[in-house]
Amino acid sequence: MAAGDNHASQSAPSAIAVATAGHVESVAVDEKNEIVYMSSIGEQMTPMEKDGDGSILVADLKESGTVEMRKMIKGGKLHAPKGLTLHDGKLYATDVDRVIAIDPRKGSFEVVADLSGEGAKFLNDTVWADGVLYVSATDLNKIYAVNPQKKTYSELKTSEPVKGPNGLVWDRNEKILYVCEYCTDADGKPAGRLLRCNPKTGEVKSLSSYKGELDGLALYQGDLYFSDWAAKDRPGAVGKLNLNSGDVSPVTTQTMNGPADFCITQDGIIIVPAMVDKKVWLQDTKPASEQEPK
Ligand SMILES: [Ca+2]
Ligand SMILES: [Ca+2]
After folding, report:
1. Is residue 288 in some structural domain?
2. Cα 194 to Cα 241: distance, rounded to the nearest angstrom
3. 126: which of 5, 279, 293, 294 is 20 to 30 A away, CA to CA?
4. Is residue 287 part of a domain?
5. Name one Pfam family in it (predicted).
6. Counted domains in the chain
């Protein structure tokens, strides 16, 4: 299961891959309890199908050197869960045309927003921002603001169209919603942008000339990390944008087919689902040359 090129390290390779049950779209970490949650859309790459074979996987990291995964949901069926967010002890996710809240202790879930009436089939990421749960609808080119208590939603009106909005992350200091796009242009070339959106005004601005087929987003130590399906055969399946300089640089070095909704732990370990490959990669965010000698 392990792979890596840091032979100087005897204890741990610089990156390892773990096989997953089905195609994992999203990961979320419970740092306190050392648990990684993953959403698996199932055995087929059918992210918009209501096929009933989706699952939430739980990996307990306490036992060093082993990662044991179990399926969490005990009642009801999920189809293609994506966009996990941990908030106040609950896991929020999208599932094709609905937004769900999962109780990890009970293994149960409830629907907190049903967007089937909007024609949604590819709801994607979720993020909490000052009491609002924002949800991207990749197929509708829209972002919704969900109120899970009232089970209501409304569209976030933006100053310009967003095309295939996928990853969302909230900057609580700047009160800015970062959004990345998963889309191609008329020639099939990657055309997804890294955007900032002020949810109060709806104003959208592009952050960089970088274009990709962008999926996940994370903020870590002032940099905006993103995953790019177009970088599957070169370094930078996960890259980062320096928000001050605008410079973009690759972070991960491994080949990852379908780098989807990753996360970064407080210690700087990046956890990336290679969705198409049915793997999850763990790698330090720092280059090997900057990591502490083992
Ligand atoms: Ca499925
Ligand atoms: Ca995603």
Report:
1. no
2. 9
3. 279
4. no
5. SGL
6. 1
Give residue 6 CA to ligand 1 midpoint distance, Å.
36
Q: What share of the chain has pLDDT > 90, as a percent?
A: 83
Burial degree of 141 (CB within 10 A; 0-12, 13-18, 19+): middle
Q: Cα of 49 to ligand 1 centre, how many Å? A: 6
The conformation of residue 107, written as its DSSP 8-state character, comes to T
Kindly give the distance from the C-alpha atom of residue 292 to the centroid of ligand 2, in angstroms, as a whole number. 32
Residue pLDDT, tens place only, 124-156: 999 999 999 999 999 999 999 999 999 999 999
Helix (H) or strand (E) segment spanning residue 29 = strand 24-30
SS (H, E, C) 139-171: CCCEEEEEECCCCEEEECCCCCCCCCEEEEEEE
Q: Which domain holds residue 29?
A: 19-282
- For residue 293, how far is its CA from the centre of ligand 2 (angstroms)? 34
Cα-to-centroid distance, 114 and ligand 1 (Å): 18
Does 10 map to a domain? no
Query: Residue 61 C-alpha to ligand 1 middle, in angstroms?
Result: 26
| C-alpha of residue 259 to centroid of ligand 2, in Å | 9
Look up the pTM and report it. Answer: 0.92
For ion ligand 1, residues whose CB falls within 5 Å: 41-42, 51, 53-54, 80
User: 98 CA distance to ligand 1 centroid (A)?
Assistant: 14
Q: Which ligand has its closest atom nearest to the C-alpha of 136?
A: 2
> Where does residue 165 rank: exposed (0-12), middle (13-18), buried (19+ CB within 10 A)?
buried
Residue 26 belongs to domain with CATH number? 2.120.10.30
